[in-house]
Design a protein that fits this description.
The chain has 450 residues and is an alpha+beta fold. It has helices at residues 47-60, 80-86, 88-101, 119-131, 141-150, 154-166, 173-177, 186-198, 200-203, 207-210, 224-228, 232-246, 252-255, 285-296, and strands spanning 5-8, 24-26, 40-42, 67-71, 74-78, 109-112, 133-136, 214-221, 259-264, 270-272, 334-343, 346-353, 356-366, 403-407, 410-414, 417-418, 421-422, 426-430, 435-439. The protein has 4 domains: 1-11 and 41-164, Potassium Channel Kv1.1, Chain A, CATH 3.30.710.10; 168-211, no CATH class; 213-322 and 330-366, no CATH class; 373-450, no CATH class. Helices cover 30% and strands 22% of the residues. Strands 10-9-8-13-12-11 form a 6-stranded mixed sheet. A 4-stranded antiparallel sheet has the order 14-15-18-19, with no helix packed on it. Helix 2 (80-86) packs across helix 3 and helix 4 packs across helix 5 (141-150). Residues 65-138 form the BTB domain.
Length: 450
């Protein structure tokens, strides 16, 4: 397959040779040849091509050129009318300059193009403006696409995007997805993302992807059941939302300098374990060590965050659902492109963080309490009815996450949570009589302790 790209704009069909009187149409007696009533109509289909050719020759000879574009140390001469006709960006630039100067105009105007314009790509596009023909070698298509995007030359950018999509492979797709300004072309982005998603097993092994910045995250789980139900896409979406909430203004280097330890809060959002309340049942040695490490790395973005919510005691499933109001669209691109399960409880994701391509390394960890509550070795039963089951009496109040202990063969239940409220209540259960009795409350409210 030819690696070069050749595109011709929809120019007039100048291949038709003029014959005889060169397409002179004469009206019959009393007939009209045109809406104006002209009796002679002459259509010169070759004139547009000849005019462009003449203008191009004048440009190359710097004849009647009235604009100079500076790119780095290079100068590119041209005619403002021609360049403005091909590029809406240059039209805006030239028009703004004319308005600012009023009637005072220079014979030749010089513009310094900033923003990383590529000289060779700009030359290709200037040639296209004068010839309606674009000839680009395969390795230059990306730079021509970028320059055409900056100049708002949509037709050229669309042709370049089509060529790049047609030549996607696991080695170059990540580099193409990283092109600046690609987010402006929704169709182009969707096609590249679709290819990456379908070929992510191969793409994940490419040197380009492995060289991307990596955000490392570990997510705590209370049970192995939770870990077995986790979906890779949902997990990566939750991590992406966490990054956007708390690290949107962070430098990417700050975000990748450590491994973050997160937990799932009641509102189904991930929170940093550095903010987990002390004394919580999940505040294990793993979390305490992480808190100490986090204090050594001071990040301005960690200030002024809302306090994380206490995680529920029942098993949860990491689910991603966006039901809140949609934020207004911006040019910033925050999206999950693809994800895969690398090994058991470990996932790899490819995301965009504010138009920057980044990988996510997410690992699930089981967070077991340091001193689990003792479990009774014998079942509750009565002496006179050893083989009968009895319904247990209800507690005085609804609660979860309470502290439990064996006190003289009775079950002592202290504190806990009634929804968001931490309790001081104490109750004791007598299995012999199947009765709950209220006791004096604790001095302080506590929950999830042994």
């Amino acid at each position: 397959m030819n690696d070069n790209m050749c595109v011709s704009a929809s120019a007039p069909t100048a291949d038709l040779e003029l014959t005889g009187d060169e397409m002179v149409e004469q009206c019959s007696n009393g007939g009209d040849a045109s809406p104006t009533g002209a009796e002679l109509l002459f259509m010169d289909d070759k004139l547009p091509a000849r005019t462009l050719h003449s203008l191009n020759m004048m440009r190359k000879n710097r004849t009647f050129c009235d604009v100079v574009l500076h790119v780095g140390n290079s100068e590119l001469h041209g005619h403002r009318a021609v360049l403005a006709s091909a590029s809406p960006h240059l039209l805006e630039l030239f028009s703004a300059d004319d308005e600012s100067k009023g009637s005072v105009r220079e014979n030749v105007v010089t513009y310094h193009l900033n923003g990383g314009f590529d000289k060779l790509a700009l030359e290709k596009l200037i040639d296209y403006a004068y010839t309606a023909r674009l000839e680009v070698r395969g390795h230059q298509v990306k730079s021509v696409f970028l320059t055409a995007t900056k100049l708002k030359m949509e037709r050229v950018a669309k042709e370049c995007a089509s060529y790049l999509v047609h030549h996607l492979d696991p080695e170059n797709c990540v580099e193409i997805r990283s092109l600046p300004g690609i987010a402006r072309s929704k169709t182009f982005v969707a096609q590249v993302d679709s290819y990456i998603g379908q070929q992510f097993d191969e793409v994940s092994q490419s040197p380009t992807l492995l060289a991307l910045p990596c955000v490392r995250v570990e997510v705590l789980n209370q049970t192995r059941q939770e870990m077995s139900l986790v979906s890779g896409d949902s997990l990566c979406h939750l991590v992406l939302d966490w990054v956007k909430r708390f690290h949107e203004d962070d430098n990417l280097n700050n975000l990748t300098e450590k491994t973050y330890l997160l937990y799932l809060a009641l509102d189904n959002t991930l929170q940093d374990c550095a903010e987990l309340p002390s004394g919580d049942i999940s505040d294990t040695e793993i979390v305490q060590d992480y808190k100490k490490m986090s204090k050594k790395i001071v990040n301005p973005a960690t200030k002024n965050r809302r306090k994380g919510q206490i995680q529920p005691a029942k098993p949860r499933v990491l689910l991603y659902s966006r039901t809140d109001t949609l934020e207004p669209e911006t040019e910033q691109d925050w999206s999950l492109i693809a994800s895969k399960k690398v090994r058991e409880h470990t996932f790899l994701g490819l995301v965009t963080l504010g138009n920057k391509l980044v990988t996510l390394s997410v690992m699930l960890r089981l967070n077991q309490p340091t001193s689990p509550s003792p479990l009774p070795d014998t079942q509750v039963c009565t002496d006179h009815q050893p083989d009968m089951y009895h319904g247990l009496a209800s507690m005085g109040s609804v609660k979860c996450g309470a502290g439990c202990a064996n006190l003289n063969d009775n079950l002592l239940v202290c504190g806990g949570y009634d929804r968001a409220e931490c309790l001081r209540a104490v109750e004791i259960y007598d299995p012999a009589r199947n009765l709950w009795a209220a006791m004096a409350p604790m001095r302080e409210a506590r929950g999830r302790f042994n």
